[in-house]
Structure formats: structure tokens, C-alpha cells
Specification:
Beta-Lactamase; rod-shaped; five-stranded antiparallel sheet; alpha+beta; 273 residues
Length: 273
């Protein structure tokens, strides 16, 4: 007994066609409807077309079952499965690339967050440093103002001498009152102008020598009214306004009665008694 080949083709066709719907559902579950929706639609359209072809065959296409129509019945599901497998490969690669991009994006975002945290720490440190500097500057300004007040309002004549030009870099109010000159006059003068002519050379030579410690010496100074006073100068070298200078404190030891001469005041008090 010879078995007909028609049932064999039918079984193969049915088996191949049965693979298509679950395969399409698997692609949908793995890759999502948006990615494979058109693939599923195309698969079922081809399956529907195949069923129409099979339905027309008995209706008078008059083709030999062992020829082209049977081959077409087998090729359509096979080609459809091959195409779906190719689509799966493409989607897997795309999914891998998307996962890689997601991973790289996550690492980049993490790096940015870490760098942001580091920058925040640096900014906090800079802000603290700025605050400390502002506080230090305020304290320094207050300290300078305090020292400036002590210099300006000191009851004894004081000035700062530029050791290179032998000009006044600064002087206090007591020096103006004691020597009798105005601020503008004193600013244009030099300590040499206060010395009597016989002591100018000695004073210039004294200024050329360094004074690392406080030194005292009595000089004869002229005041604006022409009077000469014995003045003990206490000097100390320093740097003022980035220039080599010498701080000088003048003390009247002549016994004159002047507002800025404590010795003179005490002598006058003694004479009154």
C-alpha cells in the first residue's frame, strides 16, 4: 500500500505554520510591541495569504500537487521564520547597543555626580578660605587702624624715614606741633632740614648705617621759629610700603617748656615750685 504524499505536505505546512505565532509572541515579550509589531502584522498577513492560496488550490487552479504550489506552501513559512530570526538578531544587537549606551550613560552620570560632589567640597573649602581671608583682612585692617591711631596720636614726635631718599615716608601730628611746620611743609622736607648745619654730615653718615636694634643719640634740631632744641632720637629700621625705612621717635631733652616735651614740662613745673 502506497501512502499519498499530500498528508505529508500538510503536516509539514501545519508544523511550520504553528511555529510562527508563538515565535512572534516571544519576540513581542522580549523586545516589546513597538519594535516587533510590524513583524507580527506581516507574519499573520503572509499566513492569511497562504491560507487563501491553499483554499484556491482545490477550486480549479489545475496545478500538479507535486510541483510549484506544494513548494510554495513550504517556502513561505520557512522564509517567514528565517526573516523573523534575522529580525530577532537585529533587535538583539540593537538591544545590546541600547544597554551599552545606558550603562555608559549611567557611568557618566555617576562620574558627573562624583565630580559635582568634589566640586561642591572644593567650593565649600574656597568659601571657608574666603571667609577666613575676609575675617583676617578685617582684623588686619582694624589692627592697622589701631597702630595708625597710636602713631598719629602719639604725644611724642614720630616719623618714618626713607633710607634711600632720606625723605619722610610718614609723620605724626605731634611732629607737626613740636617743630611748628604745616603738614604740606613737613611733607616736602627731609630730616636733614631739621639738623643744624654742623651735624648734617654726621646725620647722613648715621642714616647710611643699619640699625637692627633700637639706638639713641642726641641731636640739635631747628624748629620753624628758629629755635634749636636738644632732641634724643630713638631709631629702629623697618620696611615700610616696600621700602627700607627707619622709625624715629624724638624726645626733647633740652628742658624747654613745650606742649610735646615731657621733660620740659616737668622742668617748668619744678621751676614754678
Amino acid at each position: 500500500m502506497v501512502l499519498s504524499s499530500e498528508p505529508v505536505y500538510s503536516v509539514i505546512l501545519s508544523g511550520l505554520a504553528c511555529f510562527i505565532p508563538p515565535y512572534a509572541l516571544r519576540l513581542t515579550r522580549v523586545f516589546g510591541t513597538k519594535r516587533v509589531g510590524w513583524v507580527i502584522f506581516s507574519a499573520f498577513v503572509l499566513l492569511g495569504a497562504l491560507q487563501l492560496v491553499r483554499a484556491w488550490h482545490p477550486m480549479g487552479l489545475a496545478l500538479d500537487p507535486s510541483m510549484t504550489l506544494d513548494l510554495l506552501y513550504m517556502l513561505i513559512p520557512v522564509l517567514l521564520l528565517i526573516g523573523m530570526m534575522h529580525i530577532e538578531t537585529i533587535l538583539k544587537e540593537r538591544l545590546r547597543i541600547e544597554e551599552e549606551e545606558k550603562r555608559i550613560r549611567g557611568e557618566l552620570e555617576q562620574l558627573v555626580r562624583e565630580r559635582t560632589v568634589d566640586l561642591d567640597k572644593v567650593n565649600d573649602e574656597l568659601q571657608r578660605e574666603i571667609n577666613l581671608r575676609k575675617t583676617g583682612e578685617q582684623e588686619l585692617r582694624k589692627s592697622k587702624e589701631g597702630y595708625r591711631f597710636l602713631f598719629d596720636e602719639n604725644p611724642l614726635p614720630m616719623w618714618i624715614l626713607d633710607l634711600e631718599s632720606l625723605r619722610f615716608l610718614a609723620f605724626n601730628n605731634a611732629a607737626l606741633r613740636y617743630y611748628g611746620f604745616s603738614r604740606a611743609e613737613f611733607k616736602d622736607m627731609s630730616p636733614i632740614d631739621l639738623c643744624v648745619p654742623t651735624e648734617v654730615a654726621a646725620y647722613v653718615e648715621e642714616c647710611a648705617r643699619n640699625s637692627n636694634a633700637q639706638q639713641r643719640r642726641v641731636w640739635h634740631h631747628r624748629r620753624k621759629d628758629g629755635s634749636v632744641a636738644d632732641v634724643e632720637l630713638t631709631v629702629h629700621d623697618l620696611v615700610y610700603a616696600e621700602r627700607p625705612g627707619r622709625l624715629v621717635l624724638a624726645y626733647d631733652v633740652s628742658g624747654w617748656q613745650t606742649p610735646m616735651s615731657p621733660v620740659g614740662a616737668s622742668t617748668a613745673s619744678a621751676q614754678a615750685h
